[in-house]
From TrEMBL, chains A, B:
It catalyses: (4aS,6R)-4a-hydroxy-L-erythro-5,6,7,8-tetrahydrobiopterin = (6R)-L-erythro-6,7-dihydrobiopterin + H2O. PANTHER family: PTERIN-4-ALPHA-CARBINOLAMINE DEHYDRATASE. Belongs to the pterin-4-alpha-carbinolamine dehydratase family. This is Putative pterin-4-alpha-carbinolamine dehydratase. The keyword Endoplasmic reticulum does not apply. Keywords: Lyase. The keyword Plastid does not apply. InterPro entries: PCD_sf, Pterin_deHydtase. It holds the Pfam family Pterin_4a. GO terms for molecular function: 4-alpha-hydroxytetrahydrobiopterin dehydratase activity. It is an enzyme of class 4 (lyase). It comes from Okeanomitos corallinicola TIOX110. The lineage of its organism: Bacteria, Bacillati, Cyanobacteriota, Cyanophyceae, Nostocales.
Amino acid sequence: MAAQKLSETELQQALNSLPGWQIKEGKLYKEYKFKDFSTALGWMVTVGVHAEKMGHHPEWFNVYNTVRVNLVTHDIGNAISNLDVELAKKMEENYK
Amino acid sequence: MAAQKLSETELQQALNSLPGWQIKEGKLYKEYKFKDFSTALGWMVTVGVHAEKMGHHPEWFNVYNTVRVNLVTHDIGNAISNLDVELAKKMEENYK
């Protein structure tokens, strides 16, 4: 799927459907908290497989039970695209 | 295993046996490069299982084929310990 930069309106609509997500330094950002390290790592694997399938990958930081995610699309000049929103939705779906 | 802060000498000896590792902002730091995202993620899983077994976890950032690792021991006042060196060695062993 080709990446398309979102308009301000599309971005606002997307944020309304993504609890806890915000725009931070031009990227789609969320801090996830898990029960423990293994749970965090397991979630990263599940989400990572989806990311690989999409050909669209996150920037993410993990320490113990915390994962901080930044999503942005390099191919369209570091803007937020439909692919970032799609990946964020996959992250939400797999977060319990 | 209990964490023990390393002396300057012990730290230097450890660094000599850990190619590409350095001290950065008081932490043991290395940037790993992999063939692709899947290889990077697979390595994180392997290393993560070791970390969990040790009860000692990395701070790490991933984007695509890059993983940046910071190791420090919170329990002993954010100093570098034998556990950090042990985890760094596991990372090296599993890096091809």
